[in-house]
Amino acid sequence: MPLHDHFRPPLSEARPWDGFFSTWAVMIAGGLNKVLPPRFVALPLVSSRHLGAAHDAEGPAWTPDEPFFSGALDWSGRDLFEVRVVDEGRRLCAAVELASPANKGRPSARRLFVGRCVGHLRMGVGLVLADILTTCPHDLHRQLLDTLEVEAPAIGGETLHAAAYRAERWERAAIDVWVHPLRVGGPLPTMP
What we know:
This protein is α+β, with helices and mostly antiparallel strands. The protein has 5 helices and 6 strands, in the order H-H-E-E-E-H-H-E-H-E-E. Strand 5 and strand 6 form a beta hairpin.
């Protein structure tokens, strides 16, 4: 399948990027479920700037003391377009993170997105990061490696790319990285 630019007209007007990302996450999960061993399942997770209503807990009510501090949070710029691969025990084994405009638009959003990726790697979860945003040139792959304090060669100035990461904590405490630069109109790679 070729990569299209869902972030600029005319495609951005006819087919908004968030609809594409939702469908893409479902398609990735479906494709993975065809090839994963039976003990694994891929699950698409999509949350685009919407928070679900809180559910009331049943049982006796407990009231905490007054908080030390209360502050405002801006959840409007936090998207989740992710596919998770879990095993039979529902342990997270791998994740595919799809970078969205809200995850790249502000420095704080980029830090949170990269932090989620670092959290996956720290727990030994395999990670694929797909960054196809043509409207935001920030390099999330480089920011991820910088956060991990890993010195790695540059990917040649390409801001569109897919990267796969495998971090080992125990035996060799190392990271393996596969990077595929992408271009609009070019094919999407099969990632490890």
